[in-house]
Amino acid sequence: MTYPTIEDAIGKTPLVALQRIDAAENARRGNVILGKLEGNNPAGSVKDRPALSMIQRAEERGEIKPGDTLIEATSGNTGIALAMAAAIKGYRMVLIMPEDLSIERAQTMKAFGAELMLTPKSGGMEYARDLAEQMVAQGKGRVLDQFANPDNPRIHYETTGPEIWADTRGRVTHFVSAMGTTGTITGVSRFLKEKNPAVQIVGAQPDEGSRIPGIRKWPEAYMPKIYDASRIDRVVNVSQENAEELCRRLAREEGIFGGISAAGALWVALEVAKTVENATIVFIVCDRGDRYLSTGVFPA
């Protein structure tokens, strides 16, 4: 008899309806808002999908083999997911991340056996990405490059999008996702638009001056190569204050312990809901709130 492995636990995450936040207004308009609980993945985020996908497909192409060193710049969730995937597959994982990210993320990466290199806060993710490329040029390992690797959006086209379509029985009218590497929104958009070109794809970005873990507004020179603007119907800015407040409300009023980027996507979904009727709006709950406890977003 063959039993499932931890790899088989990735994906097929629940899609759940909000019950209390803006409930009266949504009922009046005939709208339903659904959150896809990606924190239910084994390493705790939507990034479990592309992390394993990028490693598996690189192996299939003969580009890497167990025992090799993998290097990746990360703001957190991809690093955790890659650390898990590297542990499963037998790779040395070196992760480069800005020093101001939450301690829970760093500790989780180390728990999976990854090695961490912290870069100055002032350099942001841009500096971390540059350093990763320098290390590759020096022969210190291989970068999977979540920002340019087509296996990132591809797995969302193959799994996340079909799951949303099936779980809503094709009724989804709007899909809202935080924009970081843009793999999720790009891949899901491709699938949903093939099924129904009328589905609206809406991205969530931080407004000027806001720092929301997992959501980025990239300088043009660092825009992820996997990003395809033609697949996004609209981008809406969200403030750090609104995302953090809704993060607390999501836990207290819905019992959904999600992260700050998930709340940012929900804020955008709620804004969309104010302008439509009889809509089925799906947003991605990217990860779990427990990896943000040290940030102070939740009251002690």
From TrEMBL:
It catalyses: O-acetyl-L-serine + hydrogen sulfide = L-cysteine + acetate. Its EC number is 2.5.1.47. It holds the Pfam family PALP. It is an enzyme of class 2 (transferase). PROSITE patterns: CYS_SYNTHASE (PS00901). Its cofactor is pyridoxal 5'-phosphate. Keywords: Amino-acid biosynthesis, Cysteine biosynthesis, Pyridoxal phosphate, Transferase. The keyword Transferase applies. Signal peptide: none annotated. Belongs to the cysteine synthase/cystathionine beta-synthase family. This is Cysteine synthase. It comes from Variovorax ginsengisoli.
